[in-house]
Amino acid sequence: MEHHVLLQILIPASGLVSGLIGAFVGLQNRALLAEVRRELAELENRIITRINGTYVRAGECRLREDNMHARLEALVEEVRNRNAAGL
Prior knowledge:
The protein has about 90 residues and is mostly helical. It has one domain. Helices cover about 100% and strands about 0% of the residues. The protein contains 1 helix and no strands. The protein has one helix spanning about 1-85. It starts with a helix and ends with a helix.
């Protein structure tokens, strides 16, 4: 009879422990997944910021280069006009 009572206690206890372990592992998985998603979002933001910075810098360089060419052309034209007026 003692053996039967022991089994009546042991089987539900093992089910309870198994359920608690399963719940704990599930919560750990959720926490880990949330952390991975957060880190992935941060990495994505850093990549996007770097790409945007690169394109902005390249665009600024082109704009400065175009502006420099325009200034040089204006200076060349001004020097030509002065030379033509001086002759």
